[in-house]
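Record 1 of the preview.
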Amino acid sequence: MRHRNPLCFLLLAWALLLGPMRVSAAPEPPTMTEARRAVYGGALWRVGAEPAHQAFFPRGTQLHVHEVFRAAYQESGPDKLMLVYQLTPGPREQYRCDSCAPALGAAVLARDLPQGLHILEGSWRVQARAPLLMWGAPGAAAEDLQLIGLGLDRWGLRSRYRDRVQNLESRRERLLLQQGERLLLVLDEGFAGKPAACGAEGTAPQHTALLPLAPRAADAPRLELVLRYNEGACPRPQVREEHRRYELRDGRFQPE
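->
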């Protein structure tokens, strides 16, 4: 019978106490494979007991993890990477049906600042993560994702969602913010089931927009949401346009 060295267990426990997982000791951003391993453990990830995760897929479901977005930025000093992943219960290329909806997860990687007289930059670590956060583009199509500035030294990830079933279109504007070691969905607004076409008569194009506004306080970003949609039945629905303003309060964007 093989006996395990107790020193191995001590080293493992010490590593867990050191804090966020180190991704790469190099100053260059980690590769897709390195980052995915740090966030999910590899190309496959299994849904656990977390109730919020089971809202997407049943416990025990094995998901394929595919990076669909990365963007570099600076916030509160260190260099950061925003990463977004599509997760599907089978290979992504086989998950293309109109009714197939992947889930999205995200993570923020940050590079440690140099310590003391060290010349080399610090290593990359996982600073915040959300393995399952929201639904992705139907059919595992390309995601509409963008980093947007929300004021001095504050960034958010904008996710624009669009779905169309027969003649009815749904659109949503969603925003993710890092709050400590968590990534949170702080805005999720839009319209659903609006007529996108009415035969020869036609309809006005529908769209959404998310516009940053000047904040009243440094810790309270503001946004304007624009919704343009068709209201009523064919053949002559009416065009509606809404402008809604929001301010970040208590961890979510709320109407002003």
